[in-house]
């Protein structure tokens, strides 16, 4: 009895927990964004529920980039600039945030300006990314390209400064 009762209680609580776990509470939306996309796709009520993700990324795709090694945060850019002492030249801040936001979306572009690009859309057949492909990462909301240089980051001095710089995607050769 001393062994069976705790086992039954444990299994009972686990069954209740498992029965409720598949549902998403819209009030928890910001907390749910820290869960893996695969887990979110299984939550009924989550906006990723039953969403299928492509297995491959193609040039021109709109993507979110997520740090899975440290905090699970999304790469995020906005039009606020670094102070001049940190990064001269009106470089826009690139940070990471744990919540889903419209400023977390980036477009994957060819490394060089593409003559097939018409009105911001690729006219050629789909070209998928491969290992070691060079790309440009373009932030649609601010019209800026992601960049990095050997300047130390303002917070973690061991890392390089990542920023975005406004660019016309048809005239990006000088960036």
Automatic annotation (TrEMBL):
<dbReference type="InterPro" id="IPR036300">
    <property type="entry name" value="MIR_dom_sf"/>
</dbReference>
<dbReference type="InterPro" id="IPR027005">
    <property type="entry name" value="PMT-like"/>
</dbReference>
<keyword id="KW-0808">Transferase</keyword>
<protein>
    <submittedName>
        <fullName>Protein O-mannosyl-transferase 2-like</fullName>
    </submittedName>
</protein>
<dbReference type="GO" id="GO:0004169">
    <property type="term" value="F:dolichyl-phosphate-mannose-protein mannosyltransferase activity"/>
</dbReference>
């Amino acid at each position: 009895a001393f062994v069976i009762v705790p086992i039954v209680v444990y299994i009972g609580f686990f069954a209740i927990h498992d029965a409720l776990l598949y549902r998403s509470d819209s009030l928890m939306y910001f907390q749910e964004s820290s869960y893996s996309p695969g887990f979110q796709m299984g939550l009924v009520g989550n906006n990723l529920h039953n969403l299928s993700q492509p297995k491959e990324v193609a040039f021109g795709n709109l993507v979110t980039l997520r740090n899975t090694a440290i905090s699970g945060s999304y790469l995020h850019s906005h039009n606020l600039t670094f102070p001049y002492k940190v990064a001269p030249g009106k470089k826009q801040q690139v940070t990471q945030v744990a919540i889903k936001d419209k400023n977390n979306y980036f477009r994957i572009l060819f490394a060089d300006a593409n003559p097939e690009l018409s009105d911001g859309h690729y006219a050629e057949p789909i070209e998928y990314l491969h290992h070691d492909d060079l790309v440009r990462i373009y932030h649609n909301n601010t019209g800026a390209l992601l960049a990095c240089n050997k300047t130390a980051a303002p917070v973690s001095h061991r890392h390089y400064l990542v920023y975005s710089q406004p660019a016309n995607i048809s005239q990006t050769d000088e960036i």
